[in-house]
Amino acid sequence: MRNRENLIVGLDIGTTKICALAAEADSGDVLNVVGFGAAPSDGIRKGVVVNIEKTVRAIQKAVRECELMSGAQIKDVFTGIAGHHIQGINSHGMVTVQNNRTVTEDDIRRVIEAAQAISIPSDREVLHILPQDFIVDDQDGVQNPLGMSGIRLEVNVHIVTCSATSGQNIVKCSNLAGLDVVDVVLEPLASAQAVLSQDERELGVVLVDIGGGTTDIAIYSAGSIVHTSVLALGGNHLTNDIAIGMSTPLAEAEALKHQHGIALTKLVEPDEMIQVPSVGGRKSRTLDKRLLADIIEPRFREIFELVGKEIDKSKYRNVIASGVVITGGSSLMPGADELAADILNFPVRVGFPENISGLNEMIYSPMYATAVGLLRFGLTNGQLRSTPLFSGDHTLLNRMSRRMREWVQEFF
Questions:
Q1: Residue 249 in 3-state DSSP?
Q2: Are 233 and 345 in contact, with CB atoms under 8 Å apart?
Q3: Interstrand relation of 31-40 and 124-136 (parallel, antiparallel or unpaired)
Q4: How far is CA 42 from the centre of its chain?
Q5: CATH code, residues 87-163+393-411
Q6: Terminal CA-CA length for the chain
């Protein structure tokens, strides 16, 4: 296999599947996807590694398929992270402008350092420091303060942290599979890059990524991320409900969910019947499809009601003009968008990954939004990374300082 220096690889280590995507930068903002591989994920629960051996084998299988399709050897990857251990917090920093009262890169670094000077437990790692806007003296809403005149520089940032052990286990599994992790990316942040438009970010939008083990939430306002959270509910809970409620094996429940699942009972046609396999070799049964919808709808309602509580908790409900975008595999279920709109009182659409070419027909689905977003994150930020995360003698402070230097290089 040949090496491609400009190859970007996203590795989505999810609860239900592990997906590897390889792409090259195409014209403009388009990604040319040249490789795809996927494997069932048996070693992940609710976004967290619970079996390293099984996870490593699944990563190797997905990457091997991606290598065969792309014809290139894969070494460096951008991988996603999710789980209920993810926490996001908004912070504020302020410094005095030096050097003749003109804002320099050094002033920007110092003010971001001031903003991240918060108490973080020793068992947590900083994933992202995301500047929202700057304030130069009394002028707020500044996106690029470099070169502006002023005495006082302030910044609002969103800081995302994760469990140190969860992040280390993600990287360890990738390393054991023969890969180097260039960066670990919050999954809803990656998905947002794949499915949200710039107009939606500017006007205010809620991204709801319904994965297998978790539902990830990211709220944008005025072009910046202002709130992140993770719910410990996802598509696997729907599968478990079906298995228990219809007395069928988990594998058959998953098939029923994909083939016949409906999120709204009122959408089921009258007298529509389905075949439901039984447990223990018993004969399959013919049941009303409405019974399946009666099981699925309450769980979806629970998920969207919890999403609504997170929106209220963020205190940004009044500035979400673009509504809600749902993505992830479960978002494809008929009626999911309509049910979300009824519960959340926002316009809702299903988010598909955009601006991709090559294998776009294969991966043009909400279930691959995170993987495509990881590619886009790598396209934007990959050239700035020089050392893998969670490795060597990198202390928390060193990693945070490196991320701030890279952020300044990227935007200024």
A1: coil
A2: no
A3: unpaired
A4: 20
A5: 3.30.1490.110
A6: 37
271: left (phi over 0), alpha (psi -120 to 50) or beta: left
Q: DSSP readout, 133-153?
A: EEEETTEEEES--TT-B-SEE
What are the C-alpha distances in Å from 412 to residues 210, 284, 401, 405, 407? 35, 63, 16, 10, 8
DSSP character at residue 303: H
- The residues that bridge with 108 in the sheet, in sequence order, are none
State the CATH architecture for 235-296: 2-Layer Sandwich (3.30)
DSSP 368: G
**Cα–Cα distance, 104 to 150 (Å, whole number):** 11
What residue has token string 């609504």? 308
Q: Which two tokens stand for residue 179?
A: 């890969």
Q: Which pLDDT belongs to residue 361?
A: 84
Residue 181's DSSP bridge partners are: 77
Give the whole-angstrom CA distance, residue 274 versus residue 256.
Answer: 9
Residues 211 and 237: their CA atoms lie apart, in Å, by 10
d(CA 19, CA 374): 11
Could you tell me which residues are beta bridge partners of residue 225?
Answer: 220
Q: Where are the domains of the chain?
A: 87-163+393-411, 235-296
Structure tokens at 404: 């701030």
Tens digit of pLDDT for each residue in 73-120?
999 999 999 888 999 999 999 999 987 789 999 999 999 999 988 888
Q: State the DSSP H helix or E strand holding residue 348, giving kind and residue range, or none if neither.
A: strand 348-350
Do 72 and 1 form a contact (C-beta atoms < 8 A)?
A: yes
Residue type, 37: G
Pair 19, 365: CB distance under 8 Å: no
- Residue position matching structure tokens 């918060």: 118
Measured distance CA(317)–CA(33) in Å, rounded = 36
Q: Report which DSSP code applies to 267.
A: G
Edge-to-edge, what's the strand order for the sheet holding 87-96? Answer: 87-96, 152-163, 124-136, 139-142
Q: ∠ CA 388-393-396 to the nearest 5 degrees?
A: 80
Structure tokens that stand for 218 in this block: 């990211």
Q: What is the pLDDT of residue 240?
A: 95
Q: Which residues of the chain carry a pLDDT beneath 70? A: 1-5, 26-28, 382-412
